[in-house]
Fold each of these.
Amino acid sequence: MFNNLQKYKLYSQYWHYYYLSRLVGINNTDDCFINSIDKYITKDSVVTFEDKNGFVTIEKNLFDSEILGFNCFKINYLFSKDPNNINQKLDLLSQVNNFCLKNNVNYILNRTLIADNKTIQALETDGYITTDALITFTRELDNLNSESFKHPDYEINLLEKQSNKYFVNLCELSKISFTEDRFHNDPLILKENADKIYYEWMLNSCRNTCENIIVAIDNQNDLPVGFVICKIETISNINIGTIVLIATDSNFRNKNIGYNMLIKSLEFFKDHNVEIVQVGTQLSNIPAQRLYLKLLFKPVYGSLTLRKYFKSETNE
């Protein structure tokens, strides 16, 4: 079946690859998307359900499960032959529901493009609720010429992971910096667990050699007052940089820390042959959106995070 992916009307599903079209060519944008699916569905951890009208893939979310105390899964792809046929999507979701009930899955989520209203309607009909709304920005680096502003109160550098000097401080800063996200917005998730997600997220990033962290250090106290987590991946021979998380200590706002950290991050990406950078933020985070626009990022797509909860004897 997966050899026939081209036959599906996937236009609403690969819009988020359109920002690559200038770099890879408009005719290759579909191939980028198809190749990403082919790579994903071969993973041993992926469970796939299909029928004559489409397919859906799910995978356990190990990180969320460990911290939240739920058996958490995520839907990464939900495709129907007719993208406007809600019943086709509901039939696929019913297979997911049966799996969740048989395997004691408590919590399952899906991130869907805002433009894909038929999938959103199907998920809502099936009992999913919205917990987050994101907007993703991108910018190319071929014309990077922004200048940072030197400030006497702090310095911005790449974190030296050989030393764990700032690890705990960064984790604590991450823990208190995020409040408007799918974890904090979900009434099922305790605030302490939502905060812990970001503590552990930062700790994993500090230990992960595949991610790099730009840090702003207060010169007076020698403590981190801001950070940017950067990741690089390759799609169709295009190096893509992702700003995974960014935060500034609330006591150090209005000192251009966020702006200067982003400039440093873009310079880091360019030094590592990245051609395009992407970053996402909540639709409610207007200051972040203004900052990205100031640095010539362009909004490319919006998405909703929806989740469903299954009661069981162990979590009632």
Amino acid sequence: MRRGVIAAALIAVLATTFADAQYVRNSFLESVFSIFDRTSGAKFQVDVQGASSSTYTLSTPSSGTSSTLPTSGTILSTDNVIASVTNKTIDAEATGNVFTNWKDANIKVGANIARSKLASGTANHVLINDGSGVMSSEAVLTESRGGTDQSTYTTGDMIYSGSTNNLNKLSVGGDGSFLTAAGGIPTWEYPNRPSCYMTFTEDWTCPGLGGACWTWNNTSAGTNLSFGTGDTEDRSKHPGIALIDQNAATSSFITRMGSIQYTPGNGELFVEWVIKIETLSDATTNYTMRVGFGSTTTATADNAYGLYFEYASTTSANWLIKSADNSVRTTTTTSTAVTAGYHRLGVKANDTATSVEYFVDGVSVGTITSNIPTTTQETAGLFFQVFKNSGATSRFFRLDYAYLFKRFTTCR
């Protein structure tokens, strides 16, 4: 009954405030009452549940002045009215202390609310939340926040990652330069500059020179070497072919490009061959094949210096990758099986000759970090070697091209 008395008294006060007020609840036993002013369109809702001696003072809503709330037990909500609440604390720990539908609310400086009001900020800054409700702004976002950590750019600049979770700028290169990679990061270089690059390609397309376009040191026994005579290979894909026919039980063949001294280090070294294996080695007609970068010039001897592939079916049906330095060798069996047909075999030594990666048909098959030849004045170059271990049946091999690329970290 006490709530009814309080409500009745409150309604009487509110009714004198509004020119055309209507009480929309008719039961004094309820704890929530609504007053609607049809002239101003304002509606107030008062909850008096649990209140016994609070003072309720409401001003005319259309005036925009303050309304004073009781100290506890009351929620006041307004619709369609610009109003403010002053000198009251919203207790975050208590339940039900909620303001709703306060349009265009403005939290003034000094308001007793356990959150800070962000200043007007700076134009073009990004708003940052630290996860606990504290807001700040930043002009330049770091990489960890999804930005670039860069604030200025010059025409032609490019962004790249120089290390994990770190972005850098690369200025535009000079006219005629091209973008390449050195040490795993992009850099500008100039093509056809022999002071910084060296390239070599043999495509066996020089019939006036016997097929080979460069000087090769060939040593063979029981082997016929021809350059496409009577060959039926697709010339649209393989314009030059060196055909090796091993037709005796003691057949052997070794070819190495000139007597030139190449040493890994001081820049990347890359070697690539495209060869065709017609028939795989087996127990009846067995052979060993090596190809890549090496020093050997004899029929069956292994390299004293080199980085190369080996196919020896008595050891494994898979490709072997090898390195040799002063006749001390490292051999790794890959997980890639040797198959008949054309294959692109690549060997890449890093700038400092501390690591060599091997590729079959463009796919990495392994890395070697030991016995990499770095001794100067040792003669090594592109080479191909194959020799019979048993069987007199002919075995054919085709050499499509050989390629060597050397980039000098310190140009000549």
Amino acid sequence: DVRAVDPLIKALADSDEEVRSVAADALGQIGDVRAVGPLIKAMADSDADVRSVAADALGQIGGARAVDRLRESTKDSDWRVRLHVVAALGEVGDPRALADLIAALNDLDGRVRASAAEALGRIGDKRASAALEAMLTDGVGSARSNAALALAAVGAGDSGDAIVPLLKDEDSRVRSDAGLALGLMGRNEALGVTAPDSLAGHGIFAFNAVIAMSRLDTPEAREALKTAAKQAQVPAARKLATRCLEVSTTVAAVEWLGVHAGSSFDVLAAMALLYLTDPAALEALDAAHRDSRRWYVRRAAANAARRIRRLAGREDQPASAPVR
């Protein structure tokens, strides 16, 4: 309710840091641009939690002023704040933050490095390719995973050779994400991980595997999909593989946002559509953002829709509102 904006702005000056945090969070959910100035001021709050929530809120509202302040805060003294700041810059997707996010790939904290890699993938600028490729050997698994997916997202197909070794990574999640990244790039090497994961994997492993194989235009990949459609241990993976044999990957993922919205795959579908960047998914993503009962599905759908609109040059069209 926009009527709450003024009282919430006043609450940003409350003596209790918890009240300030709640106010910042609420302002981000409302998404009123009148809150940008006060939230920018809150980025100098003495409490790191308040600064973190203010960064989230600025990322949800967006705009040039918000981006400028977030860029400054990539050097905040607290790693938690930096983590929220780079994630917020990824949500906004402003290419002006490219250099700041590339610098954040060298952050002392691995969680911040991983978040920066993910943010660069959302921006989708190939100028980040070299820095992301260097991240493929990072000591933190999530950083390696996010770098591989980001390289696929920015369209750095020539980085596929550097991702292939991750198919044998000691971390199963890294192997899965590397398989998805290579699948998105159209690299048949992905089958080394995706074929077995589609059969025996659970949750994100099975979903990644099926999506990756559906993007490979080879007889081997199609046979692997047929096998998954019949033999995958996870029923949802069998259904998804079956649909990917019948329709495009985008259509299959969209169906998991709608008809199968109650399954555990709905948030994974929204995340996959972020990388597929097909404008045909916008209506379904907006509906998932509006109607899903789970906040993380709404947020994933909003992020995917925002990125698709930006890359398709549709920023002037109505976009998903901030997550409520």
